[in-house]
Amino acid sequence: MHNYLDFEKPIAELEGKIEELRHLSGSGDVNIVDEVGKLQAKVDKLLQQTYSKLTPWQKTQVARHHNRPHAVDYINAWIEGFTPLAGDRAFADDQAVVSGIGRFRGRTVIVIGTEKGADTEGRVRHNFGMAKPEGYRKAIRLMNMAERFNLPVITLVDTPGAYPGVDAEARGQAEAIARSIETCLSLNVPLISVIIGEGGSGGAIALATANKVLMLEHAIYSVISPEGCASILWRSGEMAKDAAAALRLTAQDLLELGVIDSIVNEPMGGAHREPGVTMDRLAEAVDAALSDLVMNGEMDLKAQRREKFLAMGEKGLN
């Protein structure tokens, strides 16, 4: 059963009619079967029309859809023999960051992802994907391990941002994020990052300062959430739609700006409609990007990463 977004109401009505007719189709009535086919064609056309012209705010809603594949879904689908590696060896194991080692298409890799949780219990356990300092310190520990054993790193980013609570600040949230970014920049092994849903602020860039940054078609990536931006600039969360447009947070905007390296198309209607197809497409893109970096053994990965992010600053000044 779909959880429909506000702008999908016409699609919901048509699919509701299709479900009603399918319940009647057991009688083998040819007219009912034909009518279902006609309605399905209308749904497909409406999906095409709707998703080909989504506004930045609508893309934000799609990026946050509860049924989109989560980091753990990608790990379960992609990583053979996945072994979780927990804890920062200093304070605790942050459940907002899932991490471990396994084999991706025959190649041993370290995987690190921010996990929002798929249901109410899961969201509470994973703190809605908002990592605390120990989450970033766990990521740092695993990236250092990858460096030591010469293993590529894949990160899966889906977070509204780092946890802003007093306890996180008391344990050095800003320092942990900065150290994580520094570690990303210092690695001499391939680092591939994928924005699978929300890429929120420092909470995202801490795991996405990569050689290659891939982004799903309807994901978002920004320095602040639209609601946060609206509350600062207009003192009202109701201006979130305007903020989303001003932030240029869509994958298409970010590719144009040079912030990301490529966009992976989602199935029509978004990743939440066909999670399996989405995960397969993204696996192909990650494999291609990783193979390119591994095969190019002469490349100074650390220098390439540094130049890549310095170039963004230069482009912004011009």
Give a quick summary of the entry:
With 318 residues, the protein is of the alpha/beta class.
Structure description:
By secondary structure, the chain is α/β, with parallel strands linked by helices. It has 2 domains: 6-53; 60-317, 2-enoyl-CoA Hydratase, Chain A, domain 1. It is built from 14 helices and 8 strands. Strand 5 (191-200), helix 9 and strand 6 form a beta-alpha-beta unit. Helix 1 (9-24) runs antiparallel to helix 2 and helix 8 (173-186) packs parallel to helix 9. The longest helix has 22 residues, at 30-51.
Could you give the topology of this structure?
Blueprint: H1 9-24, H2 30-51, H3 56-63, H4 71-78, E1 79-84, E2 97-104, E3 107-114, H5 120-125, H6 133-148, E4 153-159, H7 166-170, H8 173-186, E5 191-200, H9 201-208, E6 212-216, E7 220-222, H10 226-233, H11 240-247, H12 251-257, E8 262-264, H13 275-295, H14 301-317
Parallel strand pairs: 3-4, 4-5, 5-6, 5-7, 6-8
Antiparallel strand pairs: 1-2, 2-3
Helix pairs in contact: 1-2, 6-8, 8-9, 10-11
- Regarding quaternary structure, what we see is single chain
If you consult CATH, what is the topology of the largest domain? 2-enoyl-CoA Hydratase, Chain A, domain 1
Overall mean pLDDT stands at 91
Helical/strand content category: alpha/beta
Q: Write the H/E string, N to C.
A: HHHHEEEHHEHHEHEEHHHEHH
Give the class-level CATH name of the largest domain.
Alpha Beta
CATH architecture of the largest domain: Alpha-Beta Complex
Q: Strand count, sense and closure of the main sheet?
A: 8 strands, mixed
Percent in strands: 15-25%
* General shape: globular
**How many distinct folded domains?**
2
Range of helix content: 40-55%
CATH superfamily assignment of the largest domain?
2-enoyl-CoA Hydratase, Chain A, domain 1
